[in-house]
């Protein structure tokens, strides 16, 4: 209750805040409030700034002011930051570039002014910018006047794309002696004139990007002459480019061109003349992707003897012959993805036998999504260097739908290492299909319809195989103990969503020969039954994927024969995935010795309370995923060890119980951990108690628990005290008199009866003057008189009053002679006027006069203190406790009473100081 009441306030505050402030807060949380500075770099982007902030450290070297609202860049506002090397004012609305800018920033190396509104650009603008190496003026409204760039002696990169420039000529005098890259994309000139690049005569230019210069359609002879060092030319997207493509090649013949990108320029056919101009060059990369090439004349590429990469992705080629690739003797990488036209069966494109024979150096051949009529025994003949063949998604090529050796005989001489047969609608694999692929290391058979029992013959001959992927077939593959007998060096085996559910429920595991296996994927197979020996011998296994199965029974305590601890054979496991299995229990021994495990995925199960220390062996854990379970409490007994080194925790969407016992430790951990916890604010919600329902666990008030500790101690102390008190009271109530009796005897044995001085006793004749009601005479005679002996004498009015003396005098006299005055208190005494008024009054007076502590009360009845004080002017509290005695009703307590009485009478009369 205590903590509930305390937590009320913050919760209430949060509620109100959320309701009233959230729109503003949301906007604010998207936008940063201030610049962030790190390692001398200030990021002031996206702040709606209209001027340069003046409160940044003076020694920053980089300043990003992009995406703001600046309309000018006044040089003086940069005065504080003279050490700047990099400045970006891109995506603002700056209209002019002040020469003072570079004067105030003498070290500036890169300047990004992309996407502004700079119009007039003159020589003066860059007067002081001699240090500049990188300048981006793309997407402005440039109007160049009088050689604006002529002073940029060190500039290596210049971008003037998207400025609607009418010419590529940026100057008339030779200039920019350091320029290497010129970006001229998306401008508006249709001709490259002979003199256009003459201003670059002295530049070591390597790259020109003329991408999407939409209207470019004419090249004047000699236009590239001034720049013989040109190595890369991008002409992508110039739709009319194809018209002058052979001119272009002739123009480039005198250059050092080595890479040419002609993507998406509308080429429809290649002739044996098209690239002839490149004969003298050393072109290594030619990108012709995204065109509409249908016809490639024989010998089209014969000029490109140095070509290494040819990209024909995305064309509509109908026919490839043994002459098509003639001359490409250095080609290493041929991209034919979607390069052949997709059409119906009768007119399927044809790849003739021996088509690839000229490509004796080809290493990578990609025929992805490239249907052609059929694979014959000569289709891939001559590919002496081929290591990587991609035939994925070309399903029409395997006419029989069943793989057999005839498809791959033409590859017998290739050192093929990787074969991709993904997505080919295959239904089965005949024995020995791969027997000629002796060096194959990676085989991909994912996304087919393979359904068969693998006897082991299918994989024969693949002695070098290290990776086998058969995921996403139709869950109809049966394994036997011999399936992998010929591929014992396997490292990666992917069988997700492909196995028949019961196939692993057999005495000997199909995986027994795979001692080098490191990755095993058995996910999405609906497997319910496996044996404990399934992973026996896989001592190198590092990754085990078992998610999306139905393994819940295996780890139940109630499982016949006990939980199936299949992880005990895999001590090197690094990653274990068990999501979506309906698991509601983790046995105590499940993760024993897995001290190398770094990632544990257990999300989307039904876990509730985990046993203490069940995760304690996971000392290397870095990633823990437990989201969407039924975890209510995150206790240190379970999670302290596995969470001690974590870098990623995913545990959201559990019904957390936000009480001190369940969540305090977790919230404390979250507050101080360096681990990344995605979705912490909105996916970690309290389910109970009601007070916190649907609040983030980060709203949990930890302080309420901190108070609990002293409170608990206090509670324990308190209740102990109360218990002790009750116990004491009970003992006292029933046996107190006995205890006191023995206590007194003990005291008296050691100290003697009286603490009164010996002399004191001698002044008095009697030990006590007894005052009692007439009616109690009998009690006095029966109980008190028998106590008399030589050391103890009572003065009784009836017996000891001086004969002949006036009664009152006699009383006074006797009182004087008595050391103590003993009242036998009953209702009757209080009603006896004589006793009450005279004797009591006198006795009291004497007590006061003599300042003696000399009154002893014996209660025969319970008498109210109030009455006592009214009648006898005495209160119990005025007397020492030992001088107030109660006559016990029980007979056996009478000796104790007598003892107490004697002690009371033996007390000294002096007031204790
Ligand atoms: C190649 O394309 C050009 C331009 O579209 C056309 O004029 C020429 O006839 C074509 N050549 C052949 C052989 O189809
Ligand atoms: C180019 O092809 C034509 C026929 O289309 C042929 O006559 C000519 O010899 C070929 N030239 C070369 C260099 O292969
Ligand atoms: C092409 O390469 C060869 C040998 O590497 C070299 O001698 C020749 O100058 C190069 N040609 C051009 C145009 O760069
Ligand atoms: C070939 O071109 C395609 C499409 O333009 C591109 O995605 C791919 O990266 C290119 N491949 C190579 C090897 O350059
Ligand atoms: C497939 O290739 C064989 C030669 O290996 C040929 O006889 C047959 O006609 C081809 N099939 C089709 C459908 O063209
Ligand atoms: C796999 O094994 C099961 C049970 O042994 C059998 O019913 C099924 O037909 C087998 N599937 C194939 C494709 O051999
Ligand atoms: C496992 O790998 C080692 C080292 O690569 C190799 O020597 C050994 O033959 C392999 N084991 C099997 C069963 O292939």
Automatic annotation (TrEMBL):
One of its GO terms (biological process) is toll-like receptor signaling pathway. The keyword Transmembrane helix applies. SMART domains: LRR_SD22, LRR_TYP, LRRCT, TIR. It is a single-pass type I membrane protein. One of its GO terms (cellular component) is endosome membrane. One of its GO terms (molecular function) is transmembrane signaling receptor activity. Keywords: Disulfide bond, Endoplasmic reticulum, Endosome, Glycoprotein, Immunity, Inflammatory response, Innate immunity, Isopeptide bond, Leucine-rich repeat, Membrane, Phosphoprotein, Receptor, Repeat, RNA-binding, Signal, Transmembrane, Transmembrane helix, Ubl conjugation. The chain crosses the membrane at residues 713-732. It is found in: Early endosome; Endoplasmic reticulum membrane; Endosome membrane. Its main location: other. InterPro entries: Cys-rich_flank_reg_C, Leu-rich_rpt, Leu-rich_rpt_typical-subtyp, LRR_dom_sf, TIR_dom, TLR3_TMD, Toll_tir_struct_dom_sf. Residues 764-905 form the TIR domain. Residues 1-23 form the signal peptide. Belongs to the Toll-like receptor family. This is Toll-like receptor 3. It comes from Xiphophorus maculatus (Southern platyfish). The lineage of its organism: Eukaryota, Metazoa, Chordata, Craniata, Vertebrata.
């Amino acid at each position: 209750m205590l903590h509930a009441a305390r937590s009320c306030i913050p919760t209430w505050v949060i509620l109100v805040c959320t309701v009233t402030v959230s729109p503003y807060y949301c906007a604010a949380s998207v936008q940063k409030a201030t610049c962030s500075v790190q390692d001398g770099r200030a990021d002031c982007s996206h702040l709606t700034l209209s001027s340069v902030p003046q409160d940044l450290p003076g020694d920053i070297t980089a300043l990003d002011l992009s995406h703001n609202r600046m309309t000018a860049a006044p040089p003086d506002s940069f005065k504080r930051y003279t050490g700047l090397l990099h400045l970006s004012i891109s995506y603002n609305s700056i209209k002019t570039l002040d020469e003072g800018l570079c004067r105030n920033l003498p070290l500036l190396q890169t300047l990004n002014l992309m996407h502004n509104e700079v119009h007039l650009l003159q020589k003066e603008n860059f007067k002081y910018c001699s240090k500049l190496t990188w300048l981006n003026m793309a997407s402005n409204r440039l109007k160049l006047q009088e050689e604006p760039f002529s002073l940029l002696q060190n500039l290596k990169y210049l971008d003037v794309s998207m400025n609607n420039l009418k010419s590529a000529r940026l100057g008339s005098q030779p200039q920019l002696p350091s320029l290497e890259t010129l970006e001229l994309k998306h401008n508006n000139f249709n001709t490259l004139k002979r003199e256009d690049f003459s201003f670059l005569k002295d530049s070591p230019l390597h790259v020109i990007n003329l991408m999407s210069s939409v209207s470019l359609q004419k090249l004047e002879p000699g236009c590239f002459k001034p720049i013989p060092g040109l190595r890369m030319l991008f002409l992508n997207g110039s739709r009319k480019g194809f018209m002058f493509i052979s001119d272009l090649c002739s123009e480039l013949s005198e250059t050092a061109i080595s890479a040419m990108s002609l993507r998406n320029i509308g080429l429809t056919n290649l002739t044996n003349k098209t690239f002839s101009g490149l004969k003298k060059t050393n072109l290594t990369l030619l990108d012709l992707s995204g065109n509409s090439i249908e016809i490639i004349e024989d010998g089209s590429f014969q000029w490109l003897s140095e070509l290494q990469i040819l990209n024909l992705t995305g064309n509509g080629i109908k026919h490839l012959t043994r002459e098509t690739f003639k001359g490409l003797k250095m080609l290493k990488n041929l991209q034919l993805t979607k390069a052949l036209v997709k059409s119906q069966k009768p007119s399927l494109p044809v790849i003739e036998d021996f088509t690839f024979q000229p490509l004796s150096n080809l290493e990578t051949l990609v025929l992805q999504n490239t249907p052609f009529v059929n694979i014959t025994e000569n289709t891939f003949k001559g590919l002496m260097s081929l290591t990587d063949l991609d035939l994925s998604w070309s399903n029409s090529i395997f006419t029989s739908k069943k793989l057999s050796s005839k498809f791959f005989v033409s590859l017998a001489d290739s050192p093929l290492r990787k074969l991709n047969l993904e997505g080919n609608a295959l239904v089965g694999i005949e024995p020995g299909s791969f027997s000629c692929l002796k060096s194959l290391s990676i085989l991909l058979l994912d996304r087919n319809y393979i359904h068969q029992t693998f006897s082991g013959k299918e994989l024969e001959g693949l002695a070098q195989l290290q990776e086998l992927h058969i995921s996403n077939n139709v869950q109809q593959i049966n394994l036997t103990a011999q399936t992998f007998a010929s591929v014992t060096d396997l490292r990666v085996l992917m069988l997700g969503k492909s196995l028949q559910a019961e196939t692993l429920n057999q005495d000997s595991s199909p995986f027994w020969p795979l001692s080098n296996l490191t990755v095993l994927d058995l996910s999405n197979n609906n497997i319910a039954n496996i044996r404990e020996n399934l992973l026996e011998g896989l001592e190198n296994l590092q990754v085990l994927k078992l998610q999306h199965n139905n393994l819940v029974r295996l780890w139940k305590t109630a499982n016949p024969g006990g939980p199936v601890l299949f992880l005990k054979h895999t001590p090197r496991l690094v990653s274990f995935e068990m999501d979506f299995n309906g698991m509601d229990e983790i046995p105590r021994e499940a993760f024993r010795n897995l001290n190398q495990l770094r990632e544990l995925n257990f999300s989307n199960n039904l876990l509730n309370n985990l046993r203490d220390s069940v995760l304690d062996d996971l000392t290397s854990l870095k990633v823990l995923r437990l989201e969407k379970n039924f975890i209510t409490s995150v206790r240190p007994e379970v999670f302290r060890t596995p969470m001690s080194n974590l870098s990623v925790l995913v545990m959201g969407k559990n019904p957390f119980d936000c009480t001190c016992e369940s969540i305090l430790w977790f919230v404390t951990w979250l507050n101080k951990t360096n681990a990344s916890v995605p979705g912490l604010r909105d996916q970690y919600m309290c389910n109970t108690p009601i007070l916190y329902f649907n609040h983030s666990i980060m709203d949990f008030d930890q302080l309420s628990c901190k108070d609990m500790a002293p409170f608990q101690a206090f509670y324990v102390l308190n209740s102990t005290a109360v218990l002790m008190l009750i116990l004491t009271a009970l003992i006292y109530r029933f046996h107190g008199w006995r205890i006191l009796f023995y206590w007194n005897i003990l005291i008296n044995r050691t100290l003697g009866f009286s603490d009164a001085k010996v002399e004191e006793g001698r002044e008095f004749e009697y030990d006590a003057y007894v005052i009692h009601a007439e009616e109690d005479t009998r009690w006095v005679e029966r109980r008190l008189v028998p106590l008399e002996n030589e050391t103890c004498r009572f003065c009784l009015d009836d017996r000891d009053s001086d004969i002949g003396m006036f009664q009152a005098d006699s009383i006074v006299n006797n009182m004087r002679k008595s050391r103590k005055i003993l009242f036998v208190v009953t209702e009757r005494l209080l009603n006896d006027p004589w006793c009450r008024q005279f004797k009591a009054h006198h006795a009291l007076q004497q007590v006061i006069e003599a300042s003696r502590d000399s009154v002893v009360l014996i209660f025969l009845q319970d008498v109210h203190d109030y009455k006592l004080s009214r009648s006898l002017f005495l209160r119990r509290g005025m007397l020492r406790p030992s001088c107030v005695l109660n006559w016990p009703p029980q007979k056996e307590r009478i000796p104790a009473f007598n003892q107490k009485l004697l002690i009371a009478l033996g007390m000294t009369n002096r007031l204790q100081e």
